[in-house]
Amino acid sequence: MNHNPLKSLNSFSVRHLDDGNGLGKVIFTNRIQINESMRLAFSAAPIIFQDEIIKKSDIRVTVVNDDVISVQIHSQEHSDTRTDWRKGARVDLNYSIFDLPDHIETQCVKIVQSLGLRFAAIDLILDNQGDLWFLEANPNGQWAWIEQRTGAPITSKIVNALEKI
Fold first, then answer.
1. 83: closest CA among 110, 52, 116?
2. How far apart are CA 109 and CA 128, in angstroms?
3. Cross-strand bridge partners of residue 55
4. What are the residue boundaries of the ATP-grasp fold RimK-type domain, all occurrences included (predicted)?
């Protein structure tokens, strides 16, 4: 039996229709330990878990047509951002441009194109062995904060793409 720590696959937003303010509530990715009685209880519910990938950092890849901008999020520098970098909302979280291998860039572009999109924000994990793990491709992923923190030219890539329509 595998007793590795599990974590939820991804966070999601929950919108309460009766709260009157229209604000969503975010449930962050959390590390949990599951015992046998919990496994039995979970078997009757639509819940998705994944084995935890011990990571060196998170990578956010922004794809605009054939242009790819990759940023390393140094999430492991702070205990509150190790499981989910968004959890700490830290202003001192470090970001840097990341040199994604060419074949991974090509795969990211192909994923976006295969989904019939021209833009997506792709989240990857870089593990301690240097391997990259795909988490998700978000067709409405946030990007302005990346540009503000790193100077990556995402706005100009989007403007250029829109001018070609």
1. 52
2. 25
3. 127
4. 25-161
